Amino acid sequence: MEFIQQNIWTVLLAVMSGFMLVMPSFRRFSGVKQIGPQEAVLLMNHDEALVLDVREQSEFFDGHIAKAKHIPLGALAKRLDELEKYKDKPVVAVCRSGSRSGMACGTLRRAGFQNVHNLDGGMMAWERAGLPKERK
């Protein structure tokens, strides 16, 4: 106990580091599947998946996946009615890196969407895979 008291900042740093290491593994239990760009293309081509781009407007206009529906993350909860017809279809959420789209997936799951996927690595992974983008 004395060691902890004398080294509280070191102990807290170690605990936080450990928490940050295990945090990504909790994604698996959220009910949202993390998929790569190739899996996303398969869902789009074979299962008529909706691509939901949750980035800000300027990011979207710089380049996005063809036929993507654009609803910024901050507006998603208010605009869920626009997605109602996709409730039984696969939805692939995308942002720049996969973080905001992960939050969007949580919002969609809570709204009753069952077949929700997060593009792991977001548009950065899409670009690294050499896949095309459209500009608006």
UniProtKB/TrEMBL annotation:
PROSITE patterns recorded: RHODANESE_3 (PS50206)
Residue span, Rhodanese domain: 45-135
Transmembrane region(s): 6-26
Domain of life of the organism encoding this protein: Bacteria
MF GO annotations: transferase activity
Keyword annotations: Membrane, Transferase, Transmembrane, Transmembrane helix
Name listed for the protein in its UniProt record: Rhodanese-related sulfurtransferase
Species name: Sulfuritortus calidifontis
Organism lineage: Bacteria, Pseudomonadati, Pseudomonadota, Betaproteobacteria, Nitrosomonadales
